[in-house]
Design brief:
- The protein is of the alpha+beta class.
- The chain folds into 2 domains: 151 residues, 2-Layer Sandwich (Heat Shock Protein 90); 153 residues, no CATH class.
- Helix content is 49%, strand content 17%.
- The strands form 2 sheets. Strands 1-2-3-5-4-6 form a 6-stranded mixed β-sheet. The protein has a two-stranded antiparallel ribbon with strand order 7-8.
- Strand 2 and strand 3 form a beta hairpin.
- Helix 2 runs antiparallel to helix 3 and helix 6 crosses helix 11.
- The longest helix is centred in the middle third of the chain and has 25 residues.
- The chain is elongated.
- The protein starts with a helix and ends with a helix.
Length: 320
């Protein structure tokens, strides 16, 4: 199969592999990762990708919590294998003081990650609210000495500032909860993508570092501003929509318009397979343009516009 045929017929941003329990789960993960490497013309990485994913899946089966998922993200030039599970306990990083016998024993039981370290150009773990993602960029061949892994995670939220000078109250009326939760999931995955790309290859992807910083600053303001109790009350009342009041710094609200442009740019990169991630669906784009657009509108002094009254919702209904 020629490289041209691969690029035009194989969807590289394929959905995650759900790993079952037992040895078959490890075997399925190895075969799946090798197929992905073959599909994108990176046979040179297949051996290390298989070795590394075996260790990570074993580790997740022994010490993590279901669901366990395997993904390939990053770029075609620097693909990244990720194994996620629902436990937020960080993995034990390899220590340099182990002798060979002890290290082999640890590797056998999925605790020592020295195999991953030796098969990677870079690797680490990202701790999230609902678990963790352990990732590695496979190298072309195993090395005698492993690279150092890094553990990163979400920053500790700062105390929410009181509403007042420098703060802007945003009203979001009739927020559809299903779309809101989908927005949160997509936002977190894209934020992790640019952060890990910047961490492993900052020199080659300087834009990723800028995007990562932008995501982090906006994420803190949004997470601090949206009260969880508003969402919880709506869920307990079995509502499909709810009103939200968000306190955000004025300078943060002013930059949301730029963030909308960055989301469109990320979609273009995904469609061109410059990022091995899934682009947003049309429904996600419509919701996010309204949701984030309200920050821009109200920052400019305009009155709140409810979801069901917004022009993007009306256009969507007329098209369908």
């Amino acid at each position: 199969m020629t490289p041209t045929t691969v690029e035009t017929t194989v969807p590289l941003s394929r959905p995650a592999l759900s790993v079952g329990s037992g040895p078959r789960g490890v075997q399925n993960a190895r075969r799946w990762v090798r197929d992905v490497c073959d599909d994108m013309g990176r046979d040179d990485l297949a051996e290390c990708a298989e070795l590394g994913v075996s260790e990570l899946v074993t580790n997740a089966l022994l010490h993590g919590e279901a669901p366990i998922l395997v993904r390939v993200r990053g770029t075609r030039e620097h693909p990244r294998v990720e194994v996620s599970d629902a436990s937020s306990e960080p993995p034990m990083l390899p220590s340099t003081g182990y002798d060979d016998d002890l290290e082999d024993l640890l590797v056998t039981f999925g605790r020592g990650l020295s195999i991953v370290a030796r098969c990677s150009a870079a690797w680490g773990a990202e701790i999230e609210e609902a678990g963790k993602v352990v990732w590695f960029d496979p190298s072309c061949e195993p090395a005698d000495e492993g690279v150092e892994g890094v553990i990163t995670g979400l920053p500790v939220p700062e105390s929410r500032p009181r509403s007042g000078e420098g703060q802007l109250e945003i009203e979001l009326r009739g927020v559809p909860l299903r779309s809101f939760f989908g927005f949160q999931m997509h936002y977190r995955e894209l934020r992790r993508e640019v952060r890990l790309l910047a961490l492993a290859h900052e020199d080659e992807y300087p834009l990723a570092k800028n995007l990562s910083d932008h995501f982090g600053a906006l994420d803190r303001q949004l997470s601090e501003g949206i009260g969880a109790y508003q969402i919880d009350d709506a869920i307990r009342s079995h509502k499909n929509t709810t009103d939200l009041r968000v306190a955000i710094a004025r300078d943060g609200a002013a930059t949301v318009g730029r963030f909308l442009e960055l989301l469109d740019l990320a979609d273009a990169f995904c469609r061109e397979e410059r990022l091995l991630s899934l682009a947003r669906t049309p429904e996600q784009r419509v919701f996010q343009r309204w949701f984030l657009g309200e920050f821009v509108r109200q920052h400019n002094g305009e009155k709140p516009l409810a979801w069901h009254d917004s022009s993007v919702t009306s256009r969507r209904s007329s098209v369908s």
